[in-house]
C-alpha cells in the first residue's frame, strides 16, 4: 500500500492548476462544449484504469471536475500526484 505524503510533499508535488481539498486534490477542467468534456472524461477513465487508480469525475456543462485521493492509504499519495499529471497531459 502507498504511503500518504506530508503536507510539504503535497505542496511541492501538486501540479499547476490543482488544489488541495482536505485529503483530496482537485481540478476543474473547462471545455468549449459538453461533448468535449465527456470525451476528456472518457479518456481520463481509460488512463485511470491503466493506472488502476480511480478518481471521482463530475461532468458538468463545459467542465469536468476531477478529485483524487488514495482511499486505502487514507489520504494523498504519490499515485494521486502522478495521475493528476497524466490527466493534464491528456488535456
UniProtKB/TrEMBL annotation:
Q: Please provide the record's keywords in A-Z order.
A: Lyase
What catalytic reaction does the record list? (4aS,6R)-4a-hydroxy-L-erythro-5,6,7,8-tetrahydrobiopterin = (6R)-L-erythro-6,7-dihydrobiopterin + H2O
CDD domains given in the database record: PCD_DCoH
Query: Which Pfam family, any one, appears in the UniProt record?
Result: Pterin_4a
Gene Ontology MF: a single term: 4-alpha-hydroxytetrahydrobiopterin dehydratase activity
Supply the EC number(s).
4.2.1.96
EC main group: lyase
**GO BP, one example?**
tetrahydrobiopterin biosynthetic process
Q: Mind telling me which PANTHER family this protein's record contains?
A: PTERIN-4-ALPHA-CARBINOLAMINE DEHYDRATASE
Q: What family name appears in the similarity comment?
A: Belongs to the pterin-4-alpha-carbinolamine dehydratase family.
Give the protein name, as stated in the record. Answer: 4a-hydroxytetrahydrobiopterin dehydratase
